[in-house]
């Protein structure tokens, strides 16, 4: 199979069923075809069997074509010197017509029950057997001793086992290791797991605002923290594990992952783990070029627990996910009923289940609808919750506590406190819950599977509105179905009321996740760190090692991308010189040294606050407010107190305007959001009660906790400065980090 970077095809998006083979076998070999660019998958009312191609019309430099499969359509732009020659492919496919409804013989209730029984046949727990490692696990563990290793294997197949055994072996030999994850919550979870496995004294944690036992032989950290340690030049662990390695393509975090791979010492072995890298060969090729040694690629396709896909009928029956059964889907216009769905799953012995819903409010409303009901295992759930709430009594105030403890029904999303989510995950892992209503947070790396995953929609909501699920998101969610050692089969059930939604689910099921695409960006922290140790030529050479350049498929694309990186570097250096962080010889000034210690996307703003001496009169609570003003994340809806923020906002605008004049990207911020964030944090540091602040600021608990932890991370970095602001920052952080924030 070819991957982007080794063909004419630019795999920016997932492909509908059958299209990859058509592009690679029919279009790509043609001499007159230079580039093939598939667009996004869209739903259509035209329902066809197999793959059908339409030549739509010629365009400048090529032609536009349409590919149809089931209820999906995808545009294809083909750069060609002979676009008229592409018309021949129209003759290879029958004309696409609106599908006529087939007349099917209705199934009786008895036949539906029989079909449901056949669909769920074989479910249940497997016979107890000793856990033996799979061949791919043993292979990867052996290869770690010889070089870098990239492991791609389905969710739940035991990738973490490889890391655990490798770490145990290396620690027994007196060697050091780092285990990194993209998320603080996941790092905290792994930290707890490794403490149980290895003992508390042998494990440390570094996540920005938390610093526990940093000299331990195993350090669990966020990838950003490991990147910072590599820039300092002081870290050379024998093994570094990069968990959830598909984050290398993440818009916000991807640059950090590329920096780690580029900067890691040849002495350090890298172990990349992921379930969802469809172009792993290309990543391995890039790493071979960057690290002068080709990594070993270990790939496992087979799931330890096979998946079975079906859909919930408008009654309580389950049928295989097949176009021939569409007449029995949920009736058009009928709303999804959490209660009826859970009842159907329970009657068919398909619990526990995770139900993925588009929004936080959907999850909470679904959970609260079970208020007043009861279910078995109440005592174990109560004990787990009481343990989580022992150091965090605020958990008892959550309105969803009753459905959780009494009914075994939970909501799980980023709007809840960390302690709440940990309690829910422990209950689910112990088999004490019926259902968890979750957003995609639960699918993004947290190792909490269930027997069944239920999808009432193929849509997702983000900051830009409602959109279709990506193939990666679909596979992450469905990958949570099936518990190794507890289930013979994992079930993925969709409960949809449109034919086109069901057909899109069929396409997502068979499609490969989108190939990892570089999100590399040039930033100030990166430039200052490189220039603190290297000259401009070597700095440029390191930036040119990015996956972004490697993935350019033509000489022209490569030249353009290389020129963009060079221009971005030049302009950002000019900004750093304008603010006197670099001198004319591109050496760091004293101010540049300060900026090195502030590892934040708005480091220039915070450093300028210090350079311009804007902070001396700020009390600790106000400094915390300033630190919060330019953080990311959701914003309180109301302003709860007053504070002087104008000097900070004027400074941020000044820097942003300079960047715009230079033609380089500038971080977006909105003054009204900055005021609300700053006010909420100041109020908390001044001693406001948690529940009162949540209500007055009109913000969800999890979002407020995240805002405060982000603020604590900025303050922690200010503490490292050899300046008076460090004392004020330390005071502010100590007042901020109290329950339930930590």
Please describe the topology of this protein.
Layout: H1 19-27, E1 33-59, E2 62-80, H2 88-91, H3 109-119, H4 135-143, E3 149-152, H5 159-172, E4 177-181, H6 184-198, E5 203-206, E6 211-212, E7 218-222, H7 223-232, E8 239-242, H8 254-263, E9 269-274, H9 280-291, E10 296-299, E11 307-312, E12 318-320, H10 338-347, E13 353-356, H11 360-368, H12 378-389, H13 401-407, E14 409-412, H14 418-429, E15 435-438, E16 452-455, E17 459-462, E18 465-468, H15 471-478, E19 490-494, H16 499-510, H17 524-531, H18 536-543, H19 547-550, H20 555-578, H21 590-596, H22 603-611, H23 620-629, H24 646-662, H25 671-685, H26 690-697, H27 701-718, H28 725-736
Helix pairs in contact: 4-5, 7-8, 12-13, 12-14, 22-24, 23-25, 23-27, 23-28, 27-28
């Amino acid at each position: 199979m070819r991957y982007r970077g080794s063909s004419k095809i630019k795999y920016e998006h997932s492909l509908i069923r059958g299209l990859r083979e058509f592009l690679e076998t029919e279009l790509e070999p043609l001499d007159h075809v230079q580039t093939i660019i598939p667009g996004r998958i869209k739903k259509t009312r035209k329902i066809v069997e197999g793959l059908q191609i339409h030549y739509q019309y010629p365009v400048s430099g090529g032609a536009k074509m349409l590919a149809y499969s089931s209820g999906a359509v995808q545009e294809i732009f083909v750069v060609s010197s002979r676009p008229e020659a592409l018309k021949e492919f129209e003759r290879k496919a029958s004309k696409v017509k609106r599908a006529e409804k087939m007349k099917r013989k209705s199934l009786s209730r008895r036949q539906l029950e029989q079909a449901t029984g056949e669909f769920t046949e074989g479910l249940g727990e497997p016979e107890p057997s000793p856990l033996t490692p799979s061949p791919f696990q043993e292979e990867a563990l052996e290869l770690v001793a010889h070089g870098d290793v990239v492991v791609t294997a389905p969710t739940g197949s035991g990738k973490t086992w490889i890391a655990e055994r490798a770490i145990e072996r290396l620690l027994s030999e007196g060697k050091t290791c780092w285990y990194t994850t993209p998320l603080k919550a996941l790092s905290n979870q792994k930290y707890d797991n490794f403490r149980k496995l290895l003992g508390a004294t042998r494990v440390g944690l570094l996540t920005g605002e938390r610093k526990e036992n940093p000299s331990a032989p195993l350090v669990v950290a966020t990838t950003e923290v490991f990147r910072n340690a590599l820039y300092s030049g002081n870290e050379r662990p024998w093994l570094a594990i990069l968990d959830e390695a598909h984050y290398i393509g993440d818009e916000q975090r991807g640059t950090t992952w590329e920096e780690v791979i580029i900067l890691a010492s040849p002495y350090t072995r890298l172990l990349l783990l992921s379930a969802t890298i469809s172009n792993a060969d290309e990543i391995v090729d890039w790493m071979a070029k960057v690290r002068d040694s080709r990594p070993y690629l270990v790939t496992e396709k087979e799931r330890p627990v096979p998946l079975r896909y079906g859909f919930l009928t408008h009654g309580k029956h389950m049928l295989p996910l097949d176009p021939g059964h569409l007449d029995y889907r949920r009736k058009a216009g009928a709303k999804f009923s959490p209660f009826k769905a859970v009842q159907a799953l329970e009657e068919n012995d398909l619990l526990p289940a995770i139900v993925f819903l588009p929004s936080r409010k959907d999850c909470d409303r679904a959970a609260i609808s079970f208020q007043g009901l009861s279910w078995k295992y109440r005592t174990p759930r109560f004990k787990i919750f009481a343990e989580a709430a022992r150091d965090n009594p605020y958990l008892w105030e959550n309105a969803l506590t009753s459905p959780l403890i009494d009914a075994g029904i939970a909501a799980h999303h980023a709007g809840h406190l960390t302690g709440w989510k940990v309690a829910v995950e422990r209950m689910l892992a112990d088999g004490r819950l019926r259902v968890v209503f979750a957003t995609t947070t639960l699918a993004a790396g947290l190792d909490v599977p269930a027997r069944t995953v239920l999808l009432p929609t193929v849509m997702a909501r983000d900051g830009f509105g409602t959109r279709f699920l990506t193939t990666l998101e679909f596979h992450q969610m469905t990958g949570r179905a099936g518990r190794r050692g507890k289930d013979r089969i994992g079930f993925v059930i969709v409960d949809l009321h449109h034919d086109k939604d069901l057909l899109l689910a069929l396409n997502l099921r068979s499609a490969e996740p989108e190939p990892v695409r570089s999100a590399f960006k040039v930033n100030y922290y990166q430039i200052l760190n490189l220039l603190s140790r290297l000259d401009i030529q070597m700095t440029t050479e390191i930036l040119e090692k990015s996956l972004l350049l490697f993935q350019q498929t033509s000489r022209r694309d490569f030249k353009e991308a290389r020129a963009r990186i060079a221009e971005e570097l030049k302009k950002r250096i000019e900004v750093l010189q304008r603010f006197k962080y670099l001198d004319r010889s591109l050496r760091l000034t004293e101010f540049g040294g300060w900026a090195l210690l502030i590892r934040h996307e708005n480091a220039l703003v915070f450093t300028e606050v210090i350079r311009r001496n804007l902070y001396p009169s700020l009390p600790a609570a106000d400094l915390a407010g300033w630190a919060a003003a330019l953080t990311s994340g959701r914003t309180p809806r109301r302003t709860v107190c007053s504070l002087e923020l104008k000097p900070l906002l004027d400074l941020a605008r000044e820097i942003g305007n300079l960047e715009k004049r230079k033609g380089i990207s500038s971080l977006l911020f909105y003054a009204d959001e900055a005021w609300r964030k700053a006010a909420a944090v100041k109020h908390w540091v001044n001693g406001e009660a948690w529940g009162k602040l949540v209500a007055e600021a009109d913000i969800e608990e999890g979002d407020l906790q995240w805002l405060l932890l982000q603020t604590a991370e900025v303050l922690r970095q200010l503490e490292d400065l050899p300046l008076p602001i460090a004392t004020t920052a330390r005071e502010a952080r100590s007042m901020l980090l109290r329950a339930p924030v930590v």
